[in-house]
Design brief:
Rossmann fold; 2 domains; 8-stranded mixed beta sheet; 13 strands; alpha/beta
Amino acid sequence: MVVGLQITKNKDKYKRLQSLIDTSQLKGISFIHISDYKSLKKNLKDLDILVCYGITPEFFKYRSDKLKWIHIGASGVEDSLFNDVLKSRVMITNAKGINSKPVAEFIMSQILYFAKRFNDCEKFKNNKIWNQWDIAKKTKQLSDSTLGIIGYGEIGKELSRLAKSFSMKVIATRRLQKKTEKKKFVDALIPVDEIDSILKKSDYLSIACPLTPSTRGMINKNIFTKMKKNAVVINTSRGSIVNEEDLIEAIEEKEIYGAALDVFSAEPLNPSSKLFKLDTVFLSPHISGNFSKYQELMIKQFSDMLIKFINNKALKNRVCKKRLY
């Protein structure tokens, strides 16, 4: 069985990452360094398994019937779920779970940025005007705030745990939720068709769902009109879930207070975007899920999955080709 690893161009880094795969239980398996797309085109027909950060129709066509599994080393897989992949018998998995803690930590930092008026503190540093009580009276207690989570998956679960450590009220929804339930770290986990109750109650609304045809553009003008005037929208998932023009208008018209955005409909974000000029918008360049040891954890996760695959055991992170996540 041949496994192709398209995870880095650097040969030394490839050797280091490949060495993290537990081969003690993997007999008769060889690994190939897929350094670039030229190498992928050349070797794909010989691969049983491909580990990469995404596949395109242009290269998928060079596979043979040998290819059984593609592991995407990221959570987002929407760009790799084109028709040929969906119709094929090739199994798709992703790296869901390894960045849930970093993303949840990042979201909590975004919440604290707004609650504790860090932007005003930065202004104080620049203008040197001692406005202690002007800032203090605008700060919020998280224990008096409600966090709404759209997408109660790995990130949503970790986020709810952190939010509860700040004594926040947490309400969440997920696509397959059938009835309202109380969880250890969630006051109410509700069906998605009751999302209005989350919109009306949330001081902070975190978008943590995958990008699918049903979620593309779902956070739009209709959503903003149902939210609190002091609400903050937080998006660390995929930019296209939020209609950016509607968001900008909602903030300008004071339908909601602001937003914290780590992802955008087009990346890099255009320097002329109005988002850069809005005082109540926190921006970051798609970094919430990245950290220094990401690749090491990703390849170790794949190693565990590979052992299960060889032993014909079910893989936890298998992507459903009907639900598209």
